[in-house]
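Protein Record: Sequence and Backbone Structure Tokens
======================================================
Tokens: labelled as protein backbone structure tokens, with as many entries as the chain has residues.
Question of interest: how does this chain fold, as expressed in backbone structure tokens?

___
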Amino acid sequence: MPRPLGELEDAVMTRVWKWNRPVTVREVLEDLQRERSIAYTTVMTVLDNLHQKGWVRREAEGRAYRYEAVSTRAAYSAALMNDAWSQSDNPAAALVAFFGMMSEEQRVALRDAVRIVQGPEPQVSEPVERPSAPGPSEENPAADGDASGR
């Protein structure tokens, strides 16, 4: 199970996930600087740490690197939820409590997700009445006696 990302790691990974392409330290830095004062070396260190932790892969491009997410934000969130759930001594009660915290929008998303996992519902049709097979003395006289029908 992955440890939860720290605040700055999450801010960096949010951009990497959102852009969904290899990114440079400079690109992440410039976007982060819209929200906070931060140094190039800080962003470089965070991306290097994320690489060492296995969150991003990197490829050299000249004297710099381009970083790309190893998995999706959805996979990260799912791993966090699964870890929290598996730590419970009563998983059913934990799910009930979790569902109770959900907004209506989240419950709709949950129902949609369950439908996707379960696949299409089987078509329910009216039972078809089939004629019963003929009895021995009705249409099949050979069943009562010999092959001549007697």
